[in-house]
Every structure is written in C-alpha cells, then in structure tokens.
Amino acid sequence: MGSIGPRRATPIRADHPIEEGKRYGPVFEEQPIDTIHPEESSDGKISMNCRARANPTPIYKWHYNNWEIDFLNPQYNTKYSMIGGNLVINNPQKSKDAGKYICIVSNDYGTVKSNEASLNFGYLDPFPVDERPAVKVKEGTGVMLICDPPQHYPGDDPYG
C-alpha cells in the first residue's frame, strides 16, 4: 500500500472562466438571429434568443428599432416578456413587431451588444383559381410552362 500524505491541488489557470470567484464581463454564448415568422402562424409567440455567461450574473435589456423595451411599462408587459435573456413577443403582428432587435447584456465588469437581428413576417398570397388554357405539345418536343407566383415574402431567393 502507498503512503497517505498531503495532496497537492492541481492549479487552475488564472484565465480559466470557471475558476471559482473569478469575476468577468459578459461573453455571448447565443445571439439573436434574423427571423421570418409566418403571418398565418397559429403560434402566438416569437422568441428571440440571447444568452451570455458572466460573473456576477448579468442584466439583460432589449432594444426594438433603437428604443429600449420597458418590461415594467403596463403598455408593453403583456406584449413582451423575458425568460432568462430571451425576448418573447406575444401575439406578434407585422405592423407592430417587424423591425430590428438588439440584446444588451451587462454587469459591473462590462457590457456587450449583440448583432442586430431583424424580425420579418412571411406570407404567400393565394394562387389564382382561374383555369389556365390547355397547352398542346407534340410528343418528344420541349415546352416551357410559365408560372406566375402570387405575391410572397421572402422573395425567390431569401439567402441571396
């Protein structure tokens, strides 16, 4: 059997973020992203995510089109809520909620501002119900059928 004696602790690097008692400003783990919400969606909520690590625990704020969202204002406290650092928009409406959102996280050691995330509302107008004229073509030959899609958002290439 080996001898039992005092054990030495393995040192932790001074810059290691989980060192107990170490204080540091916020660092983003998740930032809000551009979102397209379907106008006809039955889901009555949209969540814009924001998460940061910091010590001491950070405070989260959200800005909509460069205005700070006041979660305590009775005019907004049924419209907006915050779960952790995530912004929840209840009963979203294109006319009131489409725009740019920014998450701001701070504590005594610093403040970080997220990338700007846009919220847009997607839609697809109905296809026309009019019957289209028949197209006749000889077997073995090519034909081009024209499609005229109804109004919609996003456009044909949302990533372009």
TrEMBL record:
Chain positions covered by the region annotation Disordered: 1-44
Domain Ig-like, chain residue ranges per copy: 26-120
Pfam families linked: Ig_3 (PF13927)
Location(s), subcellular: Cell membrane
Principal subcellular localisation of the protein: membrane
InterPro entries on file: Ig-like_dom (IPR007110), Ig-like_dom_sf (IPR036179), Ig-like_fold (IPR013783), Ig_sub2 (IPR003598)
Domain of life: Eukaryota
UniProt keyword terms in alphabetical order: Cell adhesion, Cell membrane, Disulfide bond, Glycoprotein, Membrane, Repeat, Signal
SMART domains named among the record's database cross-references: IGc2 (SM00408)
Leader sequence residues: none
Bias kind Basic and acidic residues: ranges: 13-23
Name the record gives this protein: Ig-like domain-containing protein
